[in-house]
């Protein structure tokens, strides 16, 4: 016996309305990441129509409905309507397989209407389909985009959700707008988080060769390194965007990373696809201004970060070695920008410090995993929760190795010649050992941020260690102030 519903059916759009993302865009990204060779078939699929393209993608790529960024305010309202015994219909231009997976997960929809591989159910086609089933003004419709205007025109009531101001104004001209759920307001910090501007601090490593060579007063080098800094930063931001786009599934399963701009749906993924190439071009132009040697190292950095984002980050241990190399490459690039020859002591000491920080980053992530499930595997990584103790031992060993190398350097002839008061610099060994120990203690206690560098610049103990480290080098260089 067919169930009777006392209220006007409520029809709900999917992309940009129920979920704060576009399923087609996410499926394209996932296909490029997991089944890249199929990307060459996209033009052929598209020639047979957008509905056929969506169907082929849905057959090869399944989105995790449990982690998608749903519009929480709308979902709460829909659940209230469902409790009032209202008939809910999910009607979307997405493929039927994708729509049904989301409907099954939410468990509130009585019917699903979607594209079927032949008809792309959007705009006027969606309006005709709904009128055929429910009649003109026989349903209420929840949507968000300009494509929904023809549907709102034939609906009894329009519910406008997460729509741009121009779309809302056009919808109100029909005179049937009932409910309005405001659009998300994109803030400056959303774009800053998309670019990960706070990560630009790492690119200050470009200045290390200049400081190590005691060329503090060379104005031309400072200008060159400033340009190099922005070149590296724009390149890094482009890679971070690409990494976030490829890591959507993993980030949404992480307690903190799920709030990143793309994973949370605050910034559309298509924006990232458009912005990243522009950043790469701008970075290359600035890099060319610095010089061909610097540009060559910048290209090595870009290639290695892309390799890391696609493959290496999934390989246990090798991922941390790669991260350490990426840190060290910044110092190498700084030397190339200024024409300075880098000391093997500098590269070895810094390399071990960066390796320790890389293991620290992984350990912090694994600590969270251990708290949730001791037998779980890190999604998108080559680790399981039980690896936390081993990663901790490797990271502490690498950190202490950096202190040993620094100590050997300070007792060598180079330090005796380069510094006015070489004995003063011995303090740095103790500071480095203490700081490494402090950072690992915080991770052991579960208080470490996902990124140790971000943690360090906010941590008072780390800042004090940095000040003591710098003061020791300053005294060793210019002597005591009295």
Widest β-sheet, arrangement of strands: 3-2-1-4-5-6
Radius of gyration using CA atoms only: 28 Å
Q: What fraction strand?
A: 5-15%
Average residue-wise pLDDT: 90
Element-by-element helix/strand order: EHHHHEHEHEHEHEHHHHHHHHHHHHHH
What is the fourth-level CATH superfamily of the largest domain? HAD superfamily/HAD-like
Question: Can you give keywords for this protein?
Answer:
single chain, 482 residues, alpha/beta, Rossmann fold, Tetracycline Repressor, domain 2, six-stranded parallel beta sheet, 6 strands, elongated, disordered N terminus
How are the elements arranged and paired?
Layout (H helix, E strand, L loop, with lengths): L9 E3 L10 H12 L7 H6 L2 H11 L11 H12 L4 E8 H11 L4 E5 L7 H12 L5 E4 L5 H6 L2 E5 L3 H8 L4 E5 L6 H8 L12 H5 L6 H28 L1 H5 L8 H4 L4 H22 L1 H19 L7 H21 L5 H29 L15 H23 L2 H6 L8 H18 L7 H7 L1 H19 L4
Parallel strand pairs: 1-2, 1-4, 2-3, 4-5, 5-6
Helix pairs in contact: 1-3, 11-14, 11-15, 11-16, 14-15, 15-16, 16-17, 17-18, 17-20, 18-20, 20-22
Account of the protein in words:
A six-stranded parallel sheet has the order 3-2-1-4-5-6, sandwiched between helices. Helix content is 61%, strand content 6%. The chain is elongated, with a radius of gyration of 28 Å. Helix 17 runs antiparallel to helix 18 and helix 17 packs parallel to helix 20. The protein is built from 22 helices and six strands. It folds into three domains: 172 residues, HAD superfamily/HAD-like (Rossmann fold, 3-Layer(aba) Sandwich); 155 residues, Tetracycline Repressor, domain 2 (Orthogonal Bundle); 137 residues. It has 482 residues and is of the alpha/beta class. The N terminus is likely disordered.
């Amino acid at each position: 016996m067919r169930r009777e519903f006392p209220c006007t059916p409520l029809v709900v759009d999917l992309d940009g309305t129920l979920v704060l993302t576009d399923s087609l865009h996410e499926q394209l990204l996932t296909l490029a990441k997991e089944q890249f060779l199929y990307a060459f078939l996209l033009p052929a699929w598209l020639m047979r129509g957008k509905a056929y393209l969506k169907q082929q993608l849905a057959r090869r790529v399944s989105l995790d409905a449990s982690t998608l960024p749903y519009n929480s305010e709308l979902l709460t309202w829909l659940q209230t309507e469902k409790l009032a015994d209202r008939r809910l219909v999910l009607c979307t231009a997405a493929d039927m397989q994708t729509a049904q997976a989301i409907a099954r997960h939410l468990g509130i929809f009585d019917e699903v209407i979607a594209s079927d591989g032949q008809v792309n159910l959007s705009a006027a086609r969606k309006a005709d389909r709904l009128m055929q089933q429910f009649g003109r003004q026989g349903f209420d419709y929840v949507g968000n985009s300009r494509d929904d205007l023809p549907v709102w025109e034939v609906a009894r009531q329009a519910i406008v959700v997460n729509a741009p101001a121009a779309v809302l104004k056009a919808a109100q001209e029909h005179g049937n707008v009932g409910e309005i759920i405001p659009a998300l307001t994109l803030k400056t910090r959303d774009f800053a988080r998309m670019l990960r501007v706070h990560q630009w601090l790492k690119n200050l490593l470009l200045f290390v060769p200049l400081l190590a060579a005691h060329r503090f007063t060379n104005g031309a080098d400072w200008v060159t390194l400033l340009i190099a800094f922005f070149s590296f930063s724009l390149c890094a931001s482009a890679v971070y965007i690409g990494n976030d786009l490829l890591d959507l599934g993993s980030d949404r399963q992480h307690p903190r990373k799920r709030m990143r701009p793309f994973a949370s749906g605050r910034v559309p993924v298509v924006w990232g696809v458009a912005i990243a190439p522009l950043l790469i071009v701008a970075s290359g132009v600035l890099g060319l201004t610095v010089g061909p040697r610097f540009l060559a190292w910048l290209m090595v950095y870009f290639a290695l970060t892309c390799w890391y984002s696609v493959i290496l980050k999934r390989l246990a241990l090798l991922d941390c070695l790669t991260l350490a190399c990426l840190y060290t490459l910044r110092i190498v690039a700084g030397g190339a920008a200024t024409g300075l020859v880098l000391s093997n002591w500098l590269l070895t000491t810094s390399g071990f410090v960066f390796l320790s920080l890389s293991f620290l980053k992984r350990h912090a992530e694994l600590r969270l995993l251990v708290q949730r499930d001791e037998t779980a595997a890190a999604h998108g990584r080559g680790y399981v929760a039980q690896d936390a103790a081993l990663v901790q031992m490797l990271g502490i060993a690498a950190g202490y190795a950096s202190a040993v190398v620094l100590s050997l350097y300070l007792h060598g002839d180079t330090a005796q010649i380069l510094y006015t008061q070489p004995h003063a610099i011995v303090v740095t060994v103790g500071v480095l050992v203490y700081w490494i120990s402090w950072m690992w203690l915080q991770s052991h206690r579960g208080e470490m941020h996902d990124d140790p560098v971000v943690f360090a610049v906010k941590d008072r103990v780390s800042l004090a260690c940095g000040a003591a480290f710098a003061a020791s080098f300053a005294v060793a260089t210019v002597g005591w102030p009295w």
